[in-house]
Structures are given as structure tokens and as C-alpha cells.
Design a protein that fits this description.
single chain; 58 residues; mainly alpha; cell membrane; Prot_translocase_SecE_dom_sf; Translocase_SecE/Sec61-g
Length: 58
Amino acid sequence: MNVPYDLSSYVRVLKLASTPSWEEFSQVAKIAGAGIVLVGILGFLIFVVMNFVPGGVP
């Protein structure tokens, strides 16, 4: 492992990185939030179905 080379490549990547605009950030946050909500709803629906199936969740 070549430490000076690795550090210089990390610095190069950080110099290329930029902060997102407010529109880009809000769009990514909405998409991520929608994904979290959908996964939660799916888990809840599976829980509800398993409660009606005999021998499901006790």
C-alpha cells in the first residue's frame, strides 16, 4: 500500500467534490424519504398479512 499515492488520490477526489444545490439536495431527500416510506409500508403489510395467516407471528 503506497500511502502518499493514496492520500494524493483522496485529496484529488475531495477537490473535485462540490456541495449540491438546494434543488438537487431536496430532490435526493424526497426520493430517499419515499423509499424509506415504501419499505415501511411493505413491512407493515407483511406483518398484517402474517397476523391473519394461521401459525403466523404469535
